Predict the structure.
Amino acid sequence: MLELKNISKSFDGTPVLKNISISADDGEIVSILGPSGCGKTTLLNIILGILDTDEGQILYNGEDMTGVPMEKRGFNIVFQDYALFPNLNVYRNITYGLRNKPDVSSPQEVQELIRLLGLQEHLEKRIDQLSGGQKQRVALARTLVMKPRILLLDEPLSALDGVIKESIKEKIRTISREYQLTTIIVTHDPEEALTLSDRVLIIDSGTISQYAEPDEIIHRPDNEFVKKFILNQLEIKRSNIYALFDTPAQKAASM
Ligand SMILES: Nc1ncnc2c1ncn2[C@@H]1O[C@H](COP(=O)(O)OP(=O)(O)O)[C@@H](O)[C@H]1O
Ligand SMILES: [Mg+2]
């Protein structure tokens, strides 16, 4: 279990995160959701250990990780831009981290991961021969071969569209269930957060607006911010979809 207790962070005297406390169970998918600039990436970086928190604690299975350096926490992140090596093929990208730590995953475990992520036919390809969704799957595989204790994803779906987005969502779900891996996902898209995660942390200007299951957020929003930010955006999306079908031909047919 991952626990954040009273995390606060300021940059140059400006508070960016204020008293954030949440917990995430093993195998749980948690989304951190909020508008641009609300502090999502800062919170992710504090969990990962790239950034120190000013106040509060990060606990993993009860153990205090607060001052522990990033590489000793055993958490791992897939960055928004994937950060793959263009000069290595897919297989070498996936197994890159095992060069110095070959015992972390057995060859069978690597193959299983490749199969789970549907990358069998792409292993010999160069990175620039891949689609966005394929790159994202390689980035996931490369991180997962190192068996992180917590998987962090910063906007993993924002560069992908439609069907590909759905397939990556499915892969993230499969992985977190299969490996009982706690997965923390940053997103600014309410629909993504509500359809992908077990619980959603909604942040409004650095404070917790609501932390609950998607069903509860939709049916029992805690406050005006949740109602406005979340539900309005879903409404806008819905009306965009309706607008798509509102073509002259259909109008004529319905008259
Ligand atoms: N290293 C930094 N130094 C100063 N200000 C920062 C730094 N990183 C982020 N900020 C500021 O903190 C706020 C939250 O940023 P961030 O966590 O990146 O938001 P989000 O990921 O939700 O878009 C923003 O106002 C941003 O400008
Ligand atoms: Mg961000």
Summary: DSSP finds ten helices and ten strands in the chain. The pocket of magnesium ion (ligand 2) is lined by residues 40-41 (CB under 6 Å). The two ends are 58 Å apart (CA to CA). The mean pLDDT is 90.
